[in-house]
Specification:
Layout lengths: L5 E5 L20 E2 L2 E2 H11 L4 E6 L4 H6 L4 H9 L3 H9 L7 E5 L6 H6 L2 H4 L4 E3 L12 H12 L21 H10 L1
Parallel strand pairs: 1-4, 1-6, 4-5
Antiparallel strand pairs: 2-3
The structure holds uridine 5'-triphosphate.
Length: 185
């Protein structure tokens, strides 16, 4: 049985739950503490043995591809100012050559459709789907647990977490969250 070494990361959704920030910034690049949530997800994938990340992107999501590329002007400016710590931190996040692929979902037709858009790049091998808008805290990261379960049992492994019946979203007071609560009933 082949091991899981590819991960599909759908990043083409509108992110309506976290408007207005996502009007101009992809949800997956919103900062959690000091770096984008996507950075944590890729870190978790690498730690679990993922060698190839396949991003399913869409319109307005170009910043995601840029995030995983050199920013030549910025790096030159940091170098000139001797800010080597920052420079090294930036470069440490860059992918190895060929480690990332990007495929376009031309309309946000749902998560299943996004994963389907990656079918040719995945090919005939087991793969993980990582939702890059959620971080899970666990001593052994969720993906590593899922891959271990797959290695032992095969089949399709779904990672879930307990969720309270009443979502706090319905009690939120901002106009944005109130509008969301109204639109979702
Ligand atoms: P979500 O349903 O959480 O993302 O899907 P969304 O559509 O952006 O959410 P709303 O608008 O806040 O409800 C989980 C992941 O799947 C991607 C999203 O970008 C997110 O990372 N996704 C969702 C796609 O790539 N394509 C889609 O058509 C829908």
């Amino acid at each position: 049985m082949k091991s899981v070494r590819k991960a599909v990361l759908p990043v083409a959704g509108f992110g309506t739950r976290v408007l207005p920030g996502t009007k101009t910034t992809p949800k997956e690049l919103l900062n959690v503490v000091d770096r984008p949530i996507l950075s944590y997800i890729v870190e978790e994938g690498r730690a679990a043995g993922i060698e190839h990340f396949i991003f399913v992107t869409g319109r307005g999501k170009g910043a995601i591809e840029d995030y995983f590329d050199h920013n030549v002007e910025l790096e030159a400016a940091l170098e000139a100012k001797g800010k080597t710590d920052l420079l090294e931190a930036l470069r440490a996040e860059l992918p190895n050559p060929g480690e990332m692929s990007f495929v376009r979902q031309m309309a946000p037709l749902g998560l299943g459709h996004a994963v389907w858009c990656a079918r040719d790049i995945v090919g005939d091998e087991p793969f993980a789907v990582m939702l890059p808008d959620m971080v899970m805290s666990a001593q052994v990261p969720a993906l590593a647990q899922a891959i271990e379960a797959y290695d032992q049992k095969g089949g399709n492994i779904v990672v879930v977490e307990p969720c309270p019946r009443a979502r706090p979203i319905s009690t939120a007071s901002s106009p944005w969250t109130a509008a969301r609560a109204a639109s979702t009933g």
